Structures are given as C-alpha cells and as structure tokens.
## 1
Amino acid sequence: MHSSSYFYIIIWFLIPFLFGSGSSSSDSSAKSSLDSLLQQYAFRELTGKRTRNGVPYDAHVPSSLTGVKVSAMILKTHILKRKVCGYYKNFFIPSGIIEEPYVKKLVLVYQNLANWSSFYYPLPGYTYLAPVFGILAYDAHNLYAKYLRDLDIQALEDPISIKFPYVQPAPEGSSPKCVYFYSNNFVQFGHVKDGNICETRVQGHFSVVAEVKVAPSPPPKANDTAPSPSPIS
C-alpha cells in the first residue's frame, strides 16, 4: 500500500476524536479502526517473505503512532488446542485454546499501545499503572486481506496470563486492579496476581489501573464562613 493510502487510513480512524469523541459509539469506532490499521501493518510482515509458524514478526507502525508496538505470529489451530505455546510477548498461551469460527491457521496480533493507552481506552476515575496490551486473532487464510473481523478465541483449560514488566505504584489509598476491555465494549475488573500478572480466557485488551480517589473538600475556615444576615430594623 502506498504511503498516501496509509495517510487516509490514519485520518479515517482519527475522525471520531476530531468530531465528538465523547460518545461511546465514537470511542468504539476509533478502537475498531485502530485494530484494523494495526492488523494491516502486522500482516504486512507476513507477506513477501518465508515465514515460520510460531515465530513472532515485529511490524513497523507510522510515526503518527510512535511508541505503539505490533507483532504477528501464525499458528496452526490444532497446535493451540493440544500444546502449550509459551510466551508470545507479554502473553503466556497455554494449551486448550479454541477458536470460533473454525479455521486451520490463525494469526495472533499483539498490541502494546504504550503512551496511547489512555487515549484509545479512557477510563474515568482511574489512572493507568501499565500500558494496554492487546491480543487479537484473525484467519490466516488470506494474509493480504484488509479490515478482517477478528476471531473469538477461548482458553478451555488454564487461562491466558498477561505479564506486565513494570507496574507503577498505585496512588495512596488505592490498590492495583486488572482491567479487561472486550470487543463488545464490556469493561471488567479483576485481581492482580503476584504484583504484575492478569489472567483472561478470551482475547481483548488488558492493563493494570488504580482508582483515583478524590480527597474531600476541607472544612471552611472561620473567616471564610458566610456573614450572618443583618437584623431587619
């Protein structure tokens, strides 16, 4: 794809933020557009070269998304179901993974949204202690395809583990929480294991956050109290 085409794609997924980013439908559209764009960049690393199954291939993203990291890995689905795949970037992939609908091979696209995490996944009342990591599955039948709909994957046995290399300390009075963003705009919270690990049984986007507690307003000082009304003469 020519650079001018990528320019228009980037403008397209930024439109929801330029014209009314407050609605949930706009947020959902922006996330889907970003996923589609990153899927295309990830798939580019799998075309025009000899690739091996089970090997991650890091993709290059445009300068407008500096900091974002994307990778792609092809896997045969019967391997996912029967064998432990181990760590793929920050995700530990156990055995017992199935996909819906069925495909012979799939591509797991890894995302690290880095400093763009709160931009694409705003969470009022919370602060991010780690970047948003994402993992999405796509049919590997046509590596030149665009705007693919992601597959649904599910861990039937052990859960998928997400390891965050560095988790910032939580604000005083708050505790770290795992946050799960799923494709249906459903947000769920969970417990952090061993200080930096979250677990899931399905694909999506994940991070560690802490609630921001608003301090109560201090009582008014004596000289700040409202004056008593003057008696009526």
## 2
Amino acid sequence: LDINEEYYDEYTEHHFIPVSNRTNRPRLLICYSSSDCSAHVNVVLQLATFVQKHMATEVYLDLWDALSVTEEGDLGWYCRKIKESDFVLVICSKGLNQRLYNQRDEELDQRANTSLAIIAMIGEEIFHAKSLNQDLSKYMTAIFEYSQRSDIPTMLNLASHYTLPKDLPLLFSHLHGVALQKPGAYLLIENISENGYSKLPAGAALLLAIQDARILITGF
C-alpha cells in the first residue's frame, strides 16, 4: 500500500485508509526516563506496542532488547539505535527533566545520569543538524496527558512536539510523511483517530496505562 499515492489520488471529503499492509515501515527509537515510576514505564511500553502493531512502524525500545543493552551498555545501545533509526521520539516527563531527582537514592541517581546523557546526546544531534541547515524531522518529543510542556528539556525545543494519545494521527503523519488534510479531502487513518484507537486491544491497554499513571502521578 502506497499511502501517498492512494491519498493524493482521492478527492473525497473523507478518505479512510488501512495501514496493515504498509510495506515501508519507518524505524522509530523511543527514549524515555524510568525515574518517574513503573506506571509511566508501562505507558511507554504500551505506546510502543500500539505504534508497532497499528501504525506500520518498526519500534526500537530498550525493554525489548535487554540482552543487547546489557552487552553494549545503555549509552552504547542508544548511540547505535539513534544512527539506525529514521526517527527518534523522546517521551518527556518530570523524571526525564530531573524534577524528581533524588540524590540519596543511588539507583535513581544512575538512571537520572543515564537519561541526562542520552538527552544531551540527542540535543547535540539536533543542534548539529540545525547548524548545517539540515532537516530536523528525525527528532520528536511527546508528553502524555499527565505531563506538562515544561517537562520538555530546553535543548529539545527545536524538535516537533506531540501530546499523546490525542496526537496519534499527527504522529502517524510525521512518521509516514503524509498530510492529514488538503483542499477537498481529509485523511482518516484506520484505528488511529483520537477516539478510535481505544477500540483495539492494544489501544485499550494504552488508555488504561495512561489512566493508571495519571492517578498515581497527579493524584486524580
């Protein structure tokens, strides 16, 4: 299925396309912090599962490649995956931005240092690309509804930003390089609308994980 050709050849008011047969799957690296809580990590895991299953994307997630991470180390693994990936999505949160940093907890200290190093590395990549007037579309940031825009590290401000799950269609558009609207037509993507994603088992699991994390992190 060539999404670009099928979309731009149509001039109907609403054009609905399936993505299950998409052959050119972009490679997406998801970066996140485990310093918030296990509920936040579960949200990231459920997002990765949904994107891989229903957004025709090959997802790289450290939780799915534990052996290589152990062999290469966190930074080594992320360095390699940043180079191999078509896109990099940084899930921003308080933990990632070091607002929950606790120096008395050695385990959290190590996680925080790793997250900072990874974000600094991505920030340098963005700055380098910007200085050479290169395309910055490889890099994206996202927050879930229980996080704030202020949780996005300043060094990542030049990256495209999304709020999930409501911006799932925009994320799909970014990953596959298709416009959601044009004169006389509106692109509807199978199972990825703001309300439609939760009708799938993977989408329902993502929604439940977000609700659990929101209650735990915000208290409501």
## 3
Amino acid sequence: MALRPLALIFALVSMALQLGAAEATDPLRALPALPKPLPGVAAATQPGEMVRDFAPGVQVVLGKRVILTGSVIMDQGPVDGLEVLACLASGKTHEAIVRLAAPDGHTARAAFTAALGLEKEGVPAPESSGLPARGWPLSVTLEWADPDHPGASLAVAASSLVRDRSLDRSFPALPFIYTGSRFLTLDETGLDGKPVRHERFMLDSTKSIVVIFDEADALLASPFPDSGSDKHFEVNSGICPPAQTPVRLVFAPVELPLTLVQALDGSLSAGGKTLGDAELEALLAERYGAAATPSQRAVAVRVDPASERAVDVATRRRLLILAASAKAWVVPVFVLP
C-alpha cells in the first residue's frame, strides 16, 4: 500500500513527459513566427461592379463576392475556448465573434450558390474527429468603418481575428473551406405520435456560418490544423473591432499560391510530376518562405473524392513538418475538384 502514492507520482510524471513531448513536436509550434497582422484599408468596389441586395443582411456581386452584414458580439476571450467566427442571430452567440443579420441558413447558402456557383456539398469535418474538411477555399475578410477617417473602411483577414493561446500567436490570412452544410433525413415523432420522416437543412439548426472548431453542419469549415478542440482558440483582441461594431464579412473565391494533387496512395504531385520531400520543401520555401509575401498562407491539396480521409491527415502532418523545415508558415487545406 505504501508504494501507491509513489506509483501515482511516477505515472503523473510519465504523463507530463508524454504531453511535453507531444507539445514539442507540434508542427504548428515549429512554424516560424510571422509579424502580427494589422488591419488595412478595405478594397473599394471596382468600376462596373454591381452590388445587389439579395436578402436582408445579404448582398452579392455576381461571380465575385458574397457580403454578409452583422455586428461584433465578442472582442476578447472566451475563457473556455472560441468555436465560431460568425453565426446567425440565434446561433452560438456565447462563443462567436460576429452575429450576422441573414434571416436563415437557406438564404445564406442560396447567396453562395447564386453569386459564386457553389451548388455542391463538400465533406465536413465531424466534431473532434481530427479529419480536415474537404471543399472549396474562400477568402473571408472582415470590414468595418474606420473610426478615425469618416467614409473609409478597415479590413482584416477573418482568420487573423483568431489567436492560439497555447502558442501565444495569432493566425495569418487563411481561407475557410466552403462545404455548404448538409441535408439530413431525420425520423421524428409527429403530433399524432406516429413516426415522420423528413429532410432538414442542418444549417438552419446550428446557424454556424463560419467556424473555427470542427462542426459538421457549418457553411464554411475551419482551416486551422488543430480544430478538433476549441480550448486553445480565443479572439485576437488586439485587432478585433469593439463589441457592437457593425461589420461586413466578404467572401470571395481565392486561388492559392500552390496547388498539389494528392493521389489515392497519398503521394503528392504538381504539374504532373510526383514530388519527394526535398522537392516539396523547396516549393514551400519558394512560395511561403521568408522572401515570399503570399496573400493566403495555405497550400491547396486537391483530393480524389474516393480517397480515404485518413490519407488527408497523413498529408497534413507531412506538409506541416516540411513547412517547418523550409521555415515557411503555411498550412494545407483540402480541395475538391
């Protein structure tokens, strides 16, 4: 019996060492530090562009952008972790940065279909699964009125509104992954007590438009590699507009600086040539290294829809390790044809 406390101490020490080793090998921790992101001047509407009102709180520029209006509801914290970047009015407002004015999920999705031609559903990231989402990358920019210059607006990549408190770093510009939420056939009990089968659009239930933490029914999935847990995410209060500030979220298709093609066996190619680790590292250094200034710090990995999703996990790990070796801050996102 006297050995039990000692055995417990050894077990706790062993666990701490294992956690420390895991933390030390976290690929994100090994990526180089970047300058802190700062808001810039919002892009002006281009000549000839027509911004159309699509629905309350929703505007579109056909073929180019979707604009969702709302307001900031959280400009710091939360202590227990940040899950959502933007939600609808009755969504997860206790753990979201922006509350949007769009009336419902159907309307929001219809705007993306009408303006950007996004008709198909992607493959979401189930909660706590560790599986990256598969879909189509969109740049997401937050805009708000410049309090010091009437008539002007400020803008920042929406991903930069998020900090990783465990790394003590904010994130650079990253695209979010459009998956379109999903329709599910549900069996429920009707008022007469009999089973009723019907189809439900899940975004109208979750009301999460853009998420930081993995949520299968969001419209846009998280680009962050460690999004299976929300405890380490918090608002980047250094640049987030104050609570109650009216804002616009602007969504646009984006071509990433590098696209790789992932084969069924996990091998990666570019331009029809299969690449080894040394070649991949050189490409990452060229496109995302110290001398590069990419508008988005993500590499697109085009996947075969029939491929196993476990291959995505291995590819993500491989590319993050190579990025660290190349001294290039970049994360992979998984793109469907």
## 4
Amino acid sequence: MVKKMPKPSILVVYYAKLTEIFWISDSHLYHAYAWLKLFNLQKSYNKNLSQKDLQLIASSVLLAALSVSPYDKKYGAFETENEKERNMRLSNLVNFSLDNKRENREMPSRPYLLSELASKGVLSCASQEVRDLYNLLEHEFLPLDLASKVQPLLLKISKIGGKLSSASSVPEVKLSQYISALEKLTTLRVLQQASCIFKSIKIDMLSRMIPFFDFSVVEKISVDAAKQNFVAIKVDHLSGVVQFGTVDIESDGLSDHLSVLADSLNKARIHICPPVKKPSKLGESLISLAAIVENEHKRLLARKSIIEKRKEELERQILEKEKEEEKKRMSSQKKTVDEERVRLLNEQRQREQDRIRREIEEKNKAEAKKMLEDLNKAGKKHVVVEGELTKEAIMELARNEQLKERHEMEKKLQKFAKTMDYLERAKRQEEAPLIEQAFQKRLEEEKILHEQEQLREIELSKQHHASDLQEKNRLSRMLEHKNALQERIIQERAAEFGRLKKERDERMNRLISSRKHERETVRKLMFYLATSRVSSSACSCCGGGCSCSCS
C-alpha cells in the first residue's frame, strides 16, 4: 500500500515543531537539520516569502549548524548500539522518509550538514554578519584575534530576529539563542588553533584570548574537548600554564593503558620471534577480490539509483494522480456551476419574456379602449364592437370609418369644385366689359399726362434760352477788351516768329557757307595730293635728269 506524501503546509508545521523540540532536548545537530528542511520547504513552496524572511531563515539554519559541537561523542559497545538506534530514529524523524530501510542512507553529521548548506545555497541567502562569522570559525586561522573578531559579530547577531511576516507556521526566529553555543564553539576553535602553534601558554594570556567566559568555564570546555579527543590539553595550576600535546598520545595511549601495553608486547614478540609465513592463497584472491568489490559497489550504486528513481517515479505518479483528480473535481464543479448559471439565466429570460408579453397585452387593451373612445367622440353615432375588445378589431373599425369619411369628403370636394367653376366663369363674363372700359379710361389719362409733360419741357427750354441770352448780353461788354488783347498777343507772337525765323535763316546761311568752304578746302587738298603723286612718279622714271617743273 502506497503512503500518501503530506502536503508542504503540514510539513512546515511539522519541522517548525521539531526545531523547538530538538533545541530544548539539546540535539543541536538534528535541530540544524530540521531548520534546513524548513528552509527548503519555505524556499520551494512559499510564494509569498520575502527576501528579508528568507535571509532570516537562512541565517537561522547556518547558526544552528555552527552551534553543533565540532567533535563526535564516543560511547562504549552497548551504549554505541543504543546511540545508533536513537540516532536512526531521530534521523527518520528529520528525513521524514517513506522508505524505512536503513541501507543506502547516510547518517547526519556536522561536516555533511555544512556541505549541504554550501551546495543548496544557504550561505548565499544568509546575512553578511552570519557569513562573516562562518568564515572566521570554519576557514580562518587566527588563534590570537579570533575571539576579538567574533565578539562584535555576535553582538550584532543577537539583535537580529523577529516574527516572519510571510511564514505564519514558522515560530518567531531568535538568533540570540545561538550566542552561547557560538561562544563555546569560538572557545574550542581558539584552543584547537592555539594547540597547533603553542606547546604551552599562560593562563592569563589564554583568558585574554577568550573574553567570553571565566577560566573555570574555559577549563570545563577544554576537559570535554580532551575527553572527545578534539584537542590534547593539560592545565597546570601550579605553574599557571596550559600545556598542549598531540591527540594520538593523549587519547588512546593514556585512556587505556592495558591496550597500549598489549600492543607493545605484541610488537616486541613479533620482533623477537617473527611468525613463520605460511603459504596462503590470499595473494591470488586479492586481484579477483578487488574486481568483486568494485562490481558489488557498482551494483549497490545501481540499486540505489533504481530505488531513488522508483521513489521519484512513485512520487511523480502520486502528484499526477492528485493533479488529475483535482482537475476532474474542478472541471465537474465548473460544469455544475455553468449549468446552474445557464438554468438561472433561462429562467430569468423566460420570466422577462412573460412580463414583456403581459405588458404588451395590457398596453394593447389600453390603446384599444382609447381608440374606441376617440371613435365614439369623433363619430355621430355610438360605435359598438361585437365580441372581444381587441386592438385589431378597433383598428379595423376605425379603418372602415375613415374610408367612409374619405368617400363622403371626395363627393363634397367634387361638388364644391363644380360650383367654383361656375362662379369663376360667371365672374369672367361679367368683368370683361369693365376691364375694357378701365383700359380706355387709362389710355385717356396717360394721353393727357403726356401732353402736360410736353408743355412743361417747352416752358423749361424757353426759360433756359432766356437766361443764356441774358448771360450773353452781360459778357458782351468785355468784347472790345478781348479783341484788343487778342490782337496784341497775335502781333507779339508774329514778331517773335519773325525774329526766330530770321535767326534761323542766318544760322542756316552760316552753316551752308562753312560747309561750302570745307568742301572747297578738301577738294583743293585732294587735287594737290593727286598732283604731287603724279609728279613724283614722273621724276622716278627719268632718274632726275630732266628739267621738269618738279625740279
């Protein structure tokens, strides 16, 4: 039978309670593992997780891992079996695995836990103070200054904490609860690192190097560490020093003297009387044994891989089945809701149609009554409708009444048109002589008006002529002066014209005489030049021996 995987919300509550239980029971390792599981669940399934809350949870995981003691406890044979059984049960609680088989399962430990934190990104999500503290305690080698560097970080970390806003199932995170465990871890790291560089150290100096506790508390912590073979240390109160040694000599050599003595005697016996080597087939089988071990290892790895794949496949099938069932349930619920909505819509639509039909019928009846009343008021006789009073019957009755009224009106109009035609014809016959008489009368009036206009024009013309004659007589007194002025102007202009003409004639004569003189001069010059050329040509022919005029 397949067990159903719990929901993430239930697992969150489960691991939140485990963190409280393991912390109260001083199971710091499983407390840290529970915090790691809680971190993975919140990071994977909580969509409302803010960055601040994620940082606070990651810081809690890292501090819980650092609070785990750096050494493993050792027990006797019987106690070891009981402790193994107890650890297996606690591991089952933390891992919450559906597979109860113990094979192929790694037991929880502090180194494995720190490697898990690094691989799953918890370190990157933690706050800067917590990361610095982790680097100082796990990776730095500062035996003299380690405590002084850790102390301010612890002071800052103690002030961090509070209720998570987006993870209601997670209890209130208080980082201050890890301070005492971290101070103890710092003390162990100081002792461990000091043992690597010092053979002995004064108690006063060691007290200054570890300011967290009194030396009595430091001594108690060192005793527990020495019991667990974490550091080899002796406190000499007489000399006031702390002596460091090697873990091998101080652990098994002094814890079990009989075992050391037996081993020494056995080694001495072997050196004195070495055992006779018997031929053995062990060497021959070593080669095949290595191959068998390798094959067995591969088979176990393959089996582990198959189991993991089957587990993943089973989980996937369960999730798919749950998703399919959820999908079917949602589909069925949606279908039911849709059908109910459609039914309600149909009922509402039917009720609306019935209401509209009733309103239309009532409106038609009211209109029919009103139309009947209008017909009774308009008509001369009372109209009675046989049968049911409907709008169609009233409209048909009204239509018939309108047709009757229209026929009667057409007859009246035809009769009235005929009467008007007779009246118009009689009126025109009577008004014809009156129109002719009025026309003749108007002709006579217009003739008289024309004659009056002609007489008025003649009278006006006579008046204009008389006024013009008066103006002429008035201006005739200036006629002599006008003639004298005219004569004088004519004489002056004639004299001026004569003078200008005489000047022109003289200018023309001078111009003609000058041009004539120029022509004579040019003619004489040309004749002279021509005569000179002829004489020069003749002299050149006779060679200058003739007595011509040119000589």
